[in-house]
Design a protein that fits this description.
268 residues, mainly alpha, 11 helices, 75% helix
Length: 268
Amino acid sequence: MTFLQAIILGLVQGLGEFLPISSSGHLVIFPWLFNFPDPGLSFDVALHLGTLIAIVLYFWKDFLDILKLAFQNYNRKSEIGNRKYGKNILWLLVVATIPGAFFGLLLEKQAETIFRNPPLIAGTLTIAGLVLYLADKYARHKRDLNDITKKDAIIIGLSQAFAIIPGVSRAGATITSGLFLGLTRVSSARFSFLLSAPIIFGATIIKVPHLIKSGLTSVEVTAIVVAALSGYLAIAWLLKFVEKVSYKVFFWYRILLAIVILSVWFVR
């Protein structure tokens, strides 16, 4: 793998992990479209490590506040800028993490084999994008993070389980379910980002021994840095973007990419 390919895949991972467009789908489609060599397991770990760094750097103050709320005798609400977290937010994140972690382990082999099919990814990009569009357009976006209940956390967690299929998008699934539950666009995105931390951490930590065993190359370090930087920028940009604009643009992007995938697949 060249440095240019590492930079491209780092960008794909960083942007795709936090924008509702599916990083896993893009990481299958880009090498398939441009005939990249198989990057291997250690490179995949490096990409996830990069996005884990991004989420920790952006939300480290929030995570500290959430821990304080859970384990110390604080008031029910804690102000962080213009955001409010309820005292139970940590436990809600734990509840929402369980379904994604369970199905991720259960269907890991399928995710690495039969799910990595271009026409299937084109289909999941389209269907998941349409559901996101409908949730964004027709749901009432009036609830904030402090209004999330245990039932909401379970529903969002179950939706996250579908992200094992490339093209669905972990961020897309959780944001969509949050929107259907009446969360504001910003609150659904923020909860999705907070929820990504344990999933990305788990996916990374399980495979870190392989990365240590094989050793970090300069190409993998490049991928980590690019994924971390692009992931951080994607988080910051999306939270600002959806304050004033809808998620509709991601639906049209998904449709366009699906058309490209099917066109290339039929030609080949």
